[in-house]
Design brief:
CATH class of the largest domain: Alpha Beta
Structural class: alpha+beta
Helix content: 25-40%
Strand content: 25-35%
Bound molecules: flavin-adenine dinucleotide
Largest sheet: 8 strands, mixed
CATH superfamily of the largest domain: FAD/NAD(P)-binding domain
Shape: elongated
Oligomer: single chain
Number of helices: 8
CATH topology of the largest domain: FAD/NAD(P)-binding domain
Distance between the termini: 34 Å
Order of helices and strands: EHEHEEEHEEHEEEHEEEEEEEEHEEEHH
Length: 351
């Protein structure tokens, strides 16, 4: 069977790449081993335009936000689902200094920041002492819904193979590349954290990062905002909230831990003034990079091999933007942004 591309992985990266390739008329097969928990499936789905204690805007956000809004709406409409909504973040100040930092930032640049009309309006539900600010617009993506719907769409059209991709079954020739019964011009690896062991890209500076989260039922807590107070409490479905997360650069065990469960339970007891029930608890590894920039594009020495990885903590906003850029690059030769292009590691990949 001949296809233009093979996509390895159906997380956010593979899901977005398959969309733009299909829109551009390219033929492809997606190979995904169908793990129940991956970075994309563990994520809360927030696109937050600001970051850190100094509340600065995140990399490229003025381009990424409008692109994400349009792209998720278009993809959702095409699949017959709704998978993006605008949701303000209520950022509860943990200390008077954090309140001051927010107010100082607000004075300098109010693009994404504001104050609510009544800072006490969450007092019935939450314990907080120093008020809160609003971050808006922020977006909430229903990642699982998007991935599941695209998966069944790919399955119905016979373009999904649920299996482990085996590197030793690749046969490269000057004209094309073969993988088992498939002949193709291009294999694109969207393999997430597993990419650290990808033999084609052995020296890329991944900085994998573990995150744990819980699913909590809190009847009566308004689902109008994403609540941020150290942890994020993110409305997911009826009375159910995603609670997380941790950012562990060094870890031996990729599984959920008792330590996180205890810590998060204590946080809930200290913060939420309503009864709650823990429904689930999970962990996953973010495909983060040491420079906090993605890896996108063709391998410098194997042009029929490409990578789309390294989304770190920002897969929801980076994946659609760079999937479109990568599609244009693969089909029409347009450039990848130099800060994201994998060509910046040409020397490391030559080793
Ligand atoms: C706890 C947590 C919370 C997060 N919250 C957010 C958030 O709120 N907002 C945000 O923007 N980002 C968030 N992220 C980050 C985001 O989830 C990632 O950036 C993004 O999901 C990465 O997508 P991916 O497609 O690269 O990887 P993945 O989702 O890991 O997908 C890779 C896919 O490739 C498959 N695969 C790998 N190797 C093979 C192989 N050899 N053969 C077949 N299949 C293979 C895997 O099974 C998987 O399906 C969070 C991450 C975590 C862990």
């Amino acid at each position: 069977m001949q296809v233009d591309c093979i996509i390895v992985g159906q997380g956010l990266c593979g899901t977005w790449l398959s969309y733009y390739l299909e829109k551009a008329g390219a033929s492809f097969i997606v190979i995904d081993k169908s793990e129940t928990l991956t970075a994309s499936r563990a994520a809360s789905g927030i696109i937050n335009p600001v970051t850190g204690r100094r509340i600065v805007t995140t990399w490229m956000i003025d381009e990424l936000m409008p692109h994400a809004w349009e792209a998720y709406n278009a993809y959702g409409q095409w699949l017959g689902i709704s998978c993006i909504e605008q949701k303000a973040i209520a950022d509860f100040f943990a200390t008077p200094q954090m309140r001051l930092a927010f107010l100082e930032r607000l004075e300098k640049d109010a693009t994404y920041l504001s104050l609510p009309t009544d800072e006490n309006d969450w007092q019935d539900w939450l314990q907080y002492d120093f008020g809160y600010g609003l971050i808006t617009p922020a977006y909430l993506i229903d990642i699982r819904k998007l991935l599941d719907q695209r998966r069944s769409n790919l399955q119905q059209s016979g373009r999904l193979r649920v299996e482990q991709f085996e590197f030793e079954d690749i046969e490269e020739s000057t004209k094309c590349i073969r993988y088992k019964d498939l002949q193709t011009n291009q294999i694109i690896f969207c393999d997430g954290a597993a990419g650290i062991n990808n033999p084609f890209f052995p020296n890329l500076p991944f900085g994998l990062n573990k995150g744990e989260a819980m699913l909590v039922k809190i009847p009566g807590l308004p689902a109008t905002h994403i609540l941020k107070k150290g942890f994020n409490l993110v409305p997911w479905s009826d009375d159910t909230f995603w609670l997380g997360s941790t950012y562990l650069w060094e870890f031996d065990d990729p599984n959920p831990t008792e330590g996180f469960r205890q810590f998060a339970t204590n946080w809930l007891k200290a913060t939420i003034k309503l009864p709650f029930e823990i429904l689930d608890h999970w962990a996953a590894v973010r495909p983060a990079t040491l420079e906090r920039k993605p890896f996108v594009g063709r391998h410098p020495n194997h042009p029929s091999i490409a990578i789309f990885n390294g989304m770190g903590t920002k897969g929801c906003s980076l994946a659609p933007f760079f999937a479109q850029q990568l599609t244009d690059h693969l089909l029409h030769g347009t450039p990848i942004s130099p800060e994201a292009s994998v060509q910046r590691f040409q020397r490391a990949l030559n080793r």
